[in-house]
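Support request, priority: normal
Reporter: lab tech (M.K.)
Component: structure prediction queue

Hi team, I submitted a job for Oxidoreductase from Hydrogenophaga aromaticivorans yesterday, and the status page still shows it as pending. I've pasted the exact input below so you can check whether something in the sequence is tripping the parser. The sequence length should be 323 residues. Please let me know if I need to resubmit or if it's stuck on your end.
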Amino acid sequence: MSEPQTPLLVRVVRKHTEALGICSLDLVAEPGHTLPPFSAGAHIDVALPNGLVRQYSLCNPPGETGRYQIAVLRDAASRGGSLAVHDAVAEGATLHISAPKNHFPLATDAAHHLLLAGGIGITPLLAMAERLSSAGECFELHHCTRSRDRTPFLERVAASSFARHTHHHFDDGDALQKLDIAATLQRAPEGAHLYVCGPQGFMDAVLAAGRAAGWPEERLHREYFAAAPVDHTNDGGFELEIASSGRVIPVRADQSALAALLAAGIDIPMSCEQGVCGTCLTRVKAGTPDHRDQYLTPEEQAANDQFLPCCSRASSARLVLDL
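Reply from support: The job had stalled in the queue. We restarted it manually and it finished. Here are the results:
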């Protein structure tokens, strides 16, 4: 996998256990490098010692300019990223990272912000809560976790200016304190925007409840950390045509569109290779994509004028790409 775009060199000045199985890293710029400002909801690409590049949300207050903070769950089903952070990155280590990118920004015209986090999905929402609290905006934050000892940043939230806006929900706690998604959405003021991040099942449940309650898609904001499993049993080959040259590139049944493009010498920016970060988003001029990403909204997928070649394929025999 390639290095992060616009690489910055940083040093890990603090590694701290935030909860059972979750550690945070405080990153500062090495001499000759500067940390650009970031907005709430932003993430960075991090090049890890094992060669992988992974995306992690920035969870410190957006107004801070001297450090970036990320937090990572040790995931037993990890493809190698979280294990590398926990086992191979120590205080004092240097890492290459990208400049911040934000595919999960706060809406500027929302009357109310409803932040729903599942587990480690609290990270971008923490930065949002810091930003909204400092601006005096109307919001509430709900954090659902398996148990108190698996809940990161409890002390930070308790001491924060947004503690009164925050609600914790523990799976092993009393039934009365568990999150009722439908009721929470129903109580939200008119014009509220919803933001959700966390495990796939949690996010699917929240978004389904929002759609069932009639919330328009433009008021439902989400960020996935990983892609859902995809069945490749019936995958077939297809062709990619480069609009600028007419060149046709075949994609084998066992090959991704991104891999075929890279093998043909066509440089496509990439990062997660799972269809969650949007880095490789490519315009489609003709043909019908088989969308398998979790980055585009349902409306954007239905338009069929763009796709993510890292994971998506083609329903038609050929896709003509705006390259």
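The two ends are 21 Å apart (CA to CA). The chain has three domains: 8-97, 112-223, 238-321. Let us know if anything else looks off. Ticket resolved.
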